[in-house]
Specification:
Blueprint: H1 10-28, H2 38-45, H3 49-52, H4 59-86, H5 94-106, H6 109-122, H7 128-152, H8 160-179, H9 183-191, H10 201-218
Length: 220
């Protein structure tokens, strides 16, 4: 579908912005970030290449906004799960809490695709205002969700919930890359039977987060 080249109202501009992001999502579903150009996104969205730059100054900014959109969806999801745990009569167990975190992450495959490149690529080539808005958004979400985590896991101290979320980010970056090797490397691992390098993302995340929470408990 070709979208009108001239956006007039605020609603139309918002619709076009979302259409650009949706086009990027479609391309990212089958191609690597480095293989996706602004020109390709423009063609997918039915727009002129120059129109994209009216909404996003750089490719990095465009994909950062996509990451923000995914983060918003994930924080809404995990917060909903945490609220459900808090409404239970019995205190939630560590296993129940960790299972919900892992399930929530697994339900956001696009966030998983973008997370490894967030700090090394997407936060590059953006201006101060964009970086400030992103970090303020993230800080606000981390404080809210971190507080819910501390309510779910009573032995956690103030700010431990935020620390847990930062540890989660570090784990995601490492595990995503290790569990999703390049095609050639994957071929080598499988052909040469190097099973030690074959990692199941969700199983490893579950195991390490459980160890993390238990470690935090031991330090209280």
């Amino acid at each position: 579908m070709v979208i009108k080249q001239r956006a007039i109202s605020g609603d139309e501009k918002l619709e076009r912005r979302e259409a650009i992001l949706d086009a990027a999502v479609e391309l990212l579903a089958r191609d690597d970030y480095h293989d996706i150009s602004i020109a390709r996104i423009a063609r997918k969205a039915g727009l002129a290449k120059g129109t994209i730059f009216l909404y996003f100054r750089t490719k990095e900014e465009l994909f950062l906004q996509l990451q923000i959109r995914e983060y918003k969806s994930w924080f809404e999801n995990i917060n909903s799960r945490l609220h459900a745990l808090l409404q239970k009569k019995n205190k939630s167990s560590i296993d129940e809490f960790v299972n919900n975190v892992v399930a929530s992450v697994g339900s956001h495959p696009l966030m998983i695709r973008l997370t490894p490149i967030l700090h090394v690529i997407l936060e590059r080539n953006i201006d101060y205002k964009t970086a400030l808005e992103f970090k303020r958004f993230l800080l606000n979400e981390i404080r809210t969700t971190g507080g819910l985590i501390e309510q779910c896991i009573p032995f956690l101290q103030k700010n431990d919930g935020a620390r847990f979320l930062l540890h989660l980010q570090v784990l995601l970056i490492g595990l995503i890359q290790l569990s999703r090797p390049a095609p050639l490397v994957k071929q080598v691992i499988e052909r040469e039977r190097m099973e030690v390098f074959q990692l199941n993302f969700e199983e490893q995340l579950l195991e390490i987060l459980t160890l993390l929470i238990n470690g935090m408990k031991a330090n209280t």
